[in-house]
Amino acid sequence: MAPNVSYHCPCLSDSTVPPPPHHLSSSSSFHPLHELFFCEECDAIRCNTCVSVEVSGYYCPNCLFEVPSASVRAEKNRRVLPYLCARNCFLCPCCRNTLSVVPSDPPETDDGRTLPVSAVGEPPFFLYCNYCRWDSAEVDITFEKPTGLAGTCTAQLQKFEDSAPDSLEFERLKEHFEPFLLRAGATSSLNPTTSAHSHHHVNPVTAAASSALARDIPGVAKYTPAQSTSGRRSKGARDEMPEYKARVDASSSKGAGLGGEPDVEFMRRLETVSEVASLEQRWSSSWAVSLRLSDIKPLRMPLHSRKSKRCPSCRHILIKPEQKAQSVRYKIKLVAANYIPAITVSMPAVAERRATLNGQATASAAEASLIQAGRSYPFHLALTNPLYDPVQVRLQVQRQLPAGAPRGADDEGTEKARRPPFAVTLPNTAFPIAAFAEAWEYEDDEDMLDDDEFGPERGAREKDARKNKTVGVLERRANVTIVGGEVLIGKDARGELKFNMLVSYTYRSDDPLAEDDVKATPSRRNVPEMKTFSFCTIVSLGTIVPREESRSVNVDL
Amino acid sequence: RDKFNIHSKAVVCQDVDLKGDITIGAGTIVHPKATIFAIAGPIIIGAGCIIEEAAIIVNRRKEVMRIGDENLFEIGCRVECPSVGNSNTVSTRARVHHTVRLTSHCVIGAGVLLVPTEDEVLAPYTVVYGPAAERRVWSGRGRAQEMDLRRKHAEYLRETLPKFNRLRRGDARAPHGGGEP
């Protein structure tokens, strides 16, 4: 893995110490910067795990037609299928690609030559998958018009959809429950509709009346109070429901795909395995479908949802997409990259992997491209400041100490971490990063720092020893500062080279905060309040390889 | 060793990498940056084929590699079949091994890696698709429109490509064909 930096999101926990990086379980609290959000009210990082998500609308991924949430949920209107595109977007049952509506070929003349293809195309039209060349004529679905497939003009598609077993069953269920719902609404007391066999509250008057009405009179059609045709009649108790009998008994296994006799027969007569529909093609439908691949119908395209995200504590909206499905921008976009410096790490001593992958590297280059135990490597951290104000950044390496022990802020690398043993040296003074501005506004690096210089000795040190040292500020360019650090690896070190790094940065804020934070130098009280924000990161440099094996090991960090 | 027999009506761009004994039929279009290597044996390409950019057609066997008419080799594909029939489509970044023989109207889907271990002949109208190279048989519906579209595609390229690319004309002895419009 290339060296990278992940950021810690506390996810509303109270402890300030992040989990140790070499534990496998701690990887869930560390995220790359592009996955994080920042809440301005709470001044905190939020990640996808702690943020609360709500759906702001649905859209079809094919035609980008938006469906507002209200009509998605509308079930009264039978024509509006929830969570499926209502227009002509279908998925190929074979390969799940989008189907397109194509005209048929022009008829062939007697001598075998085909007539020229007209621009509009000839009916009948059918659905065609460009990828696997499946077409809907194989399941006998054709249209007379190429457009308006979802409308009432194409009776065929609506017909086959309405005759699907699940919609028929749903209709019967609705018919069955309708009278009871009406009655329950009228009497304004909702009775439990679960048990169908309880004979409570038998009102003798209505019981007599119902039985009189239900009496067999030859020549007159039997009156049944709006029940399904095979439903068992109740004794007339008005808040009792007859038992519902499904149109196709699910346990009878007579239908297709239910594992009964028709399926067994089909399996016995199978010639090739490819005649059977695979599980992926069948399990997304709510009803058991036939096992035959030739029977699978095109599916309507399911809608995708557009989500908006909120901070869990203050309910401030962090992400709000635009209303139109076509636009990729956001109305509100509070991402962490706009507030927190972006950090990238690189190890200049470790050669690029492509040299070794080409097989052209010599043995010594192959050795140099791995992180070997018992050596020290310099590394570069590039910090990019996204704010319009310059910031002062302070880096600290955090040791993996128990929660009670104090964190050493000035460790210079003589201490060894727990496992694996390595020592990290970082510049321990604060260094500035210039503000973000347009490219033409950047002047010479030194000029921009005059306002915010905190340490008088830093400028001198930087100019003198810039070429010689590896630890400290290496380069300052536009709004990026590159600092160098060094890592010294113990002789018997193995495993991943990761360490926690606490980053604190101070910037001038517009908020009238009265807090007096430690990082600001007391001598600058005439400046507006400085705010400090700190977050933890994991810097992951790669895997340590023992020195003697480096010749034979395969490069796969 | 290089012997190119390019029909006068074929459109072969200058930037094409040709090697070996290659015959290109009438109306065939070879885009720039295509590669046709007749390393061990000759390659004969029929009429009306379209070979797009970064396509690689390689013949590593001594026998003649015959490619029929009106085939489409899309961008980035790699074809080593000993014989290819008519009206096939090898989609983008597909790779077909030298053990496969394509007949006619076959479609090798995008990105498909078709490397059977033993020699096989794909029946006409076979469609290979998906990451696992599943196959099914196309009913053939729409083939007239597809061929019509391919002919129009080729005709358009024949008019437009020479306007923006230098063409290679004739045999190996005259590599710098003129840039005639």
Spans of at least 5 consecutive residues with low confidence of chain B: 172-181
Overall geometry of chain A: elongated
Please state the average pLDDT score of chain B: 89
Question: Secondary-structure element sequence of chain B?
Answer: EEEEEEEEEEEEEEEEEEEH
How helical, in percent, are the residues of chain B?
A: 10-25%
Report the end-to-end length of chain A measured between terminal Cα atoms: 5 Å
| Oligomer designation | heterodimer
- Kindly state the number of beta strands of chain B: 19
Task: Give the DSSP E fraction of chain A (strand runs of 2 or more residues).
Answer: 15-25%
Uncertain stretches of 5 or more adjacent residues of chain A: 75-80, 188-201, 226-238, 353-368, 401-418, 445-467, 512-526, 550-557
Task: Give me the secondary-structure category of chain B.
Answer: mainly beta
If you had to describe this structure to a student in words, what would you say it looks like?
The complex is a heterodimer of chains A (557) and B (181). With 557 residues, chain A is α+β, with helices and mostly antiparallel strands. Among the domains of chain A are: 166-240, no CATH class; 346-392 and 412-556, no CATH class. Chain A is 15% helix and 24% strand. Chain A is built from ten helices and 23 strands. In chain A, strands 1, 2, 15, 17, 19, 22 and 23 form a seven-stranded mixed sheet that branches. In chain A, strand 5 (52-59) and strand 6 form a beta hairpin. The longest helix of chain A is centred in the first third of the chain and has 23 residues, at 165-187. Chain A is elongated, with a radius of gyration of 35 Å. Chain B has one helix and 19 strands. In chain B, a hairpin with a 4-residue loop joins strand 18 (126-129) and strand 19. Chain B is mainly beta. Mean pLDDT of chain B is 89; it is low at 172-181. In chain B, strands 1, 3, 5, 7, 8, 10, 11, 13 and 16 form a nine-stranded parallel sheet that branches. An eight-stranded mixed sheet of chain B has the order 2-4-6-9-12-15-18-19, with helices on one face. Chain A binds chain B through residues 94-95, 102-106, 108, 114, 116-117, 121, 126, 128, 131-135, 137-138, 274, and chain B through 107, 109-110, 127, 129-130, 134-136, 138-139, 141-145, 148.
